[in-house]
Amino acid sequence: MLRPRRIAVIAPSRSPLAEPFSGGLVAHVWALCTNLLQRGHDVTVFASPGSDPRLPLSDIALTGPVLSEDARADVSMPPDVVLDEHHAYLSVMMQLAAQPGRYDVVHNHSLHHLPIAMARFVSTPMVTTLHTPPTPWLESAVQSGPRTAMRFVAVSEHTAGRWRPLLDHVDVVPNGVDLARWPAGPGGCDLAWTGRLVPEKAPHLAIHAARRAGRRLVLAGPVDDRDYYKLEIEPLLGDDVVHAGHLDQAALSELVRTSAAVVVTPVWDEPYGLVVAEALASGTPVAGFRRGGVPEVVDDSCARLVRGGDIAALAGAIDEAVLLPRAAARARAEQACSLELMMDRYEALLTGAVAA
User: Fold this and answer.
1) Exposed, middle or buried by CB within 10 Å (0-12, 13-18, 19+), for 256?
2) Which residue numbers delimit the Glycosyltransferase subfamily 4-like N-terminal domain (predicted)?
3) Residue 108 backbone phi and psi in degrees, to 5
4) What span, in angstroms and rounded, lies between the C-alpha atoms of 161 and 266?
5) What are the extents of the domains in the chain?
6) Bridge-partner residues for 219, per DSSP?
7) What would the CATH number be for the domain defined by 6-176+339-355?
8) Which residues lie closer than 8 Å to 82 by C-beta, 6 or more apart?
9) pTM above 0.90, yes or no
C-alpha cells in the first residue's frame, strides 16, 4: 500500500467542482479528488467557489485585481474574465511558492499557462495532466525553461502524441469512471447524446443521423453556446428530438443506461471522450465519429465508429450499434475505463514524482 501523501490539486477555474458537472474535465477532477481522499491522502483542492463542500477546498479567487481607471483605459486591457483568471492562478502559484514543504506534490489540471510557467518557483514537484492538445499559451509555458521537477501525463495516446514533439516524456493515464455510480442498465428504444451543447461537439449532426436512422434522440447537457443552440439545435427539436436539460449524475446515468445507444459526434479531436466511457459502463453501445482519443476507449465489441462528419455513415453505425451486446460494453468499461485502474496509475505516478 502506498504511503499517504500531501497533495495540492489545481482544478480548472471556470466551473466549480460540483454537480451538475459542466463537462468531462470537471467531472474527472472531482472524481480524482474524492478518491484520493478515500485512499487516505491529505488533499487540498484549489477550485472555484461553489465547489463540493465535501472536498477540502481552497478557493480560487475569481474577483481579480482592483484596477485604476488609467489601467482600464489602456488599449491592451483584456476582457475581465481573462484578467480574473490570470490573477487567480497567479495567486495560487504565489501561495504554493510561499509554502515550501507544505505539500509533497502538486497535481495540476488547469488549462491555464501560469501553473506550468511558474512551476520552477515552487519547490514542490508538480505533475500536470494534459487535458487538451497544445495551445499557444500552454506551448509557450512548457518551452519557458527547465522542467526538472515537472512531469506530464496525457489522458490518451492521441493527446500524448500531440505533445511529445514539445516534451521529453509524456505518460498516459486514460480517464476512468466510477462503475458503481454508472451501473449497467437494460437499454431501451431511444438514443442519447450527452455533453456540452457547443459547435465542436456537434449535437446537430447527431440529430440528423438519428432521424436518418429513424430513432428518437434525447440530448442532455448544458447550453454553453447560446447562439449555436438557438440557430442549430432549437429549430430541430420536436417529438423525436428533445433536450432533457443539464442533468445531475444520477439522472444522466438513468438516461444513458436506458438508451439503445449513445451517439458521439465530435468535429474536433476529442482528447479522450469521457461520455464514451460513461456509456460503456452503463452497458450502452456507442455510435460515433472516429476522432481524437475516442477510438482508444472502445473496440468493435461495443462501438461502431465512422469518418468524422459523415451523417449517412453515422446513421448506419447507429443501426449496427443498437444490436451490439450490452454485456460487451460493460466488460470493455471494466477492462479499460474503470476509476480504480485510473486511480492506481495516478497514485503510482504522484508517488514517483515525490521520489524523483
Assistant:
1) buried
2) 23-181
3) -100, 120
4) 19
5) 6-176+339-355, 191-336
6) 193, 243
7) 3.40.50.2000
8) none
9) yes
